Amino acid sequence: MFDYTTGGDDSGTEEEQAAFMKELERFHREKMLEFKPPKFYGEGLNCLKLWRQVTGLGGYDQVTSCKLWRQVGESFKPPKYEFNSLQLI
């Protein structure tokens, strides 16, 4: 098993990201679950970064109960949408 703890950069190297995705795919296959690599605003999601962010904040239950998902999501730098009421018409 690969050590996915961070040395400062949550994103990881391309090699670390690829190894993490392989392990994630293997996990799903062993559980006989379908796995589709997730997307975030149409781009492939760095699952290693997501895992590091969530575990760094205490895990899924902690992130959920403390409503930290926005903080996690913003670390991926989503596009900022600015619109006014005229765009809604």
Keywords for this structure?
two-stranded antiparallel sheet, DNA polymerase, domain 1, 89 residues, 4 helices, mainly alpha
Relative strand content: under 5%
End-to-end span in angstroms? 53 Å
What is the CATH topology descriptor? DNA polymerase, domain 1
**H/E element sequence:** HEEHHH
Helix content: 40-55%
Instruction: State the strand order across the main sheet.
Output: 1-2
Q: Report low-confidence residues grouped into runs of 5 or more.
A: none
Number of domains: 1
In CATH terms, the superfamily is ARID DNA-binding domain
Shape verdict: globular
Q: Average pLDDT, to the nearest integer?
A: 86
Separate helix tally: 4
Which CATH class is shown? Mainly Alpha
Secondary structure category: mainly alpha
Q: Give the oligomer, counting copies of the same chain as homo and different chains as hetero.
A: single chain
How does this model look, in words?
With 89 residues, this protein is mostly helical. It has one domain (14-88): DNA polymerase, domain 1 (Orthogonal Bundle), CATH 1.10.150. The protein is built from four helices and two strands. It has helices at residues 14-30, 47-56, 60-65, 69-74; strands at 39-40, 43-44. The chain has a two-stranded antiparallel sheet. The model has no long low-confidence stretch (mean pLDDT 86).
Question: What's the layout of helices and strands?
Answer:
Blueprint: H1 14-30, E1 39-40, E2 43-44, H2 47-56, H3 60-65, H4 69-74
Antiparallel strand pairs: 1-2
